[in-house]
Amino acid sequence: MDTSVRVLVVGASVAAGALIGQLRADGFAGRVLVVDQDPDAPYDRPPLSKEFLGGETPRPEAPWWDERCELIRGRATSLDVTSAAVKVDLADGPAGTIGADHIVLATGSAPIRLPDEPDGVAQLRTAADARRIRDFAAPGRRVLILGAGTIGTELASSLAGAGCDVAIVDQADRPLDRFLGGHLGDVAAEWIRAAGVELRLGCRVARISRAGERWTVSTSAGDLSGDLVVSAIGARPATGWLAGSGLDVTNGVRCDAHGAALDASGAIIGTVQAIGDVAAWCEPGTGPQRYEDWTTAQRQGRHVAKRLMGGTDPADFGLPYFWTHQFGRRIQVLGHPKRDGDLVQHTGNPARNAAYFTVRAGGADVACVAINSPREFAGAMRTSLRESG
């Protein structure tokens, strides 16, 4: 590539960082422009619900960001695939159109909001969101968290550690249900409750209301009151701005096996790629798959960068890797913990709250779950699970 080549990245996400870092490592000499509407400088998002919220670290700076990137603060509103251009509502001026030789969509996912959700309900998506919650946290304050997934339970862990009185509401029967594939939910509920967090499971939120500074969450199992409500019920691909672009955005941006975006007919749009949470890559033999994990975002970002630099190697469709750190436990999941699989425990150390499990389905280990067991997990990543997956 020569110095006249322009790569326009929409979204300053983890995947975007991997892309930009790999471009630099491979000697890219062109221009990299990043469009992002977050008023903060690019930063690393995963610590927001953990170390940053708990006050252990300052805002986590993005390691890939420096003056060689051109940051355009604004909100992307439309994509023209024919002219390879993105229309942007600029934060400090009128709307403008930015063209590029290659456009990489890395907008990630957007929080799901409840129907009729009132203003003032907090969420955790940005550094500003995390600061609002962290500034509120104080001993004795009552926080109601909607959602018992990874974000909701990490929030509960950080806020309980700050002395808040925390309650979690979820319509699922177990916490971390999707993360653990339906396994170990009762065990997770025990350690959450042992930390003093109230769990209201299997109940639906009917209404959220506010009177002065006090909130009420009405559920199918009764009312809860608190000083702050945080919604963490999930996220969906941030593709709303792509309506009318012609891209297939049925479940994220559908892509081929190298990250090139596809239109509704399945044709490749050669100038547009998608990576990270917003992308659904067509894996060999399985069709489009969308993952919301840090490792996949890194792999996809690096692979697209290499393709832009002329590389021809196949993509690495390794097993997805998820982790969470909460309530004194580091929980790591590799693979696909299928709900109809059999959970097999291999090791356990109650004194360290440690255990190591595999999930077997079809005669093979399809996933492993490690709780405070980094050595066993590292072995799974190196050997048998990767081979069987």
TrEMBL record:
**What cellular-component terms does GO give this entry?**
cytoplasm
* Protein's UniProt keywords contain Membrane: no
What SUPFAM superfamilies does its record include? Answer: FAD/NAD(P)-binding domain, FAD/NAD-linked reductases, dimerisation (C-terminal) domain
Tell me which residues make up the Reductase C-terminal domain. 321-380
Q: Where is the FAD/NAD(P)-binding domain?
A: 6-301
Q: Which cofactor does it need?
A: FAD
- Highest rank taxon of the organism: Bacteria
Gene Ontology MF annotations: oxidoreductase activity, acting on NAD(P)H
Keyword set, alphabetical order: FAD, Flavoprotein, Oxidoreductase
Q: What is this protein called?
A: Ferredoxin reductase
Species assigned in the record = Amycolatopsis panacis
